[in-house]
Design goal:
Elements: E1 2-3, E2 10-11, H1 17-39, E3 46-50, E4 56-61, H2 74-86, E5 97-102, H3 106-115, E6 119-124, H4 126-133, H5 143-149, E7 153-156, H6 160-172, H7 184-206
Parallel strand pairs: 5-6, 6-7
Antiparallel strand pairs: 1-2, 2-7, 3-4, 3-5
Bound molecules: zinc ion.
């Protein structure tokens, strides 16, 4: 993994200044547009697909809550739009890149891999999304290297200050966190305590 010390950007290839500069601009623009989507009831994530000439091809926000579908993450919505438009399930020959305001979740990573998209650029990393909002971002393997093996470029942690501010505002404004991260250890401890209390009570009754 490559790291840019100044900006904390990480990548699974040697960091290319031109790619990073384009990604900075696009992700800042997405973060700015995202505020408008949140005010209309969308979730706090936005994705855009660009072709190799820098043309915007598809653009979509997270619509899990307002469209009542757990699959409707921004990346999934953008990919579905694009595949429908091109009439294909395989985008690999189009040399497309996806830009996302936050790191894709496990479902979206799978979807990006299956779609044939060739590069991912994201803003806020999952651990910060979970910390700020409470969304359960799921577990992920060491996916940077796995994607590299499959010829998919990844740049992450781009313009995180702007992204974190949008997420913080989402929480402050009281919007829905529909899949909160649970503290499984605390829950397990509570269950054991409950069981012990019940067992002790039953034994006490017998006595
Ligand atoms: Zn997702």
């Amino acid at each position: 993994m490559q790291k840019n010390k100044k900006t904390s950007v990480i990548a699974n290839e040697k960091i290319d200044k031109v790619k990073l500069s384009d990604a900075d601009e696009i992700i800042l623009d997405l973060q700015s547009q995202l505020k408008k989507y949140i005010n209309k009831g969308y979730g706090p994530f936005l994705a855009a697909i660009y072709d190799s000439n820098g043309r915007l091809i598809a653009h979509a926000a997270n619509s899990v809550v307002n469209k009542s579908c757990s699959h409707n993450h921004a990346e999934m919505n953008a990919i579905k739009l694009e595949e429908k438009k091109l009439g294909t399930h395989d985008l690999s020959k189009y040399n497309l890149s996806i830009y996302v305001t936050s790191e894709p979740c496990m479902m979206c990573l799978g979807s990006i891999m299956w779609s044939g998209i060739r590069a991912i650029y994201y803003g806020v990393p999952s651990e910060r999304v979970a910390k700020i909002t409470g969304f359960d971002e799921g577990f992920k393997p060491e996916w940077f290297d796995e994607f590299k093996k499959r010829g998919i470029t990844v740049y992450g942690q781009i313009e995180t200050d702007a992204g974190e501010q949008v997420l913080q505002n989402y929480v402050t404004q009281g919007h829905t966190v529909y899949k909160p991260k649970r503290n499984y250890f605390a829950r397990a401890t509570r269950t054991i305590h409950k069981f012990l209390r019940r067992t002790i009570c039953i034994r006490s009754e017998k006595i």
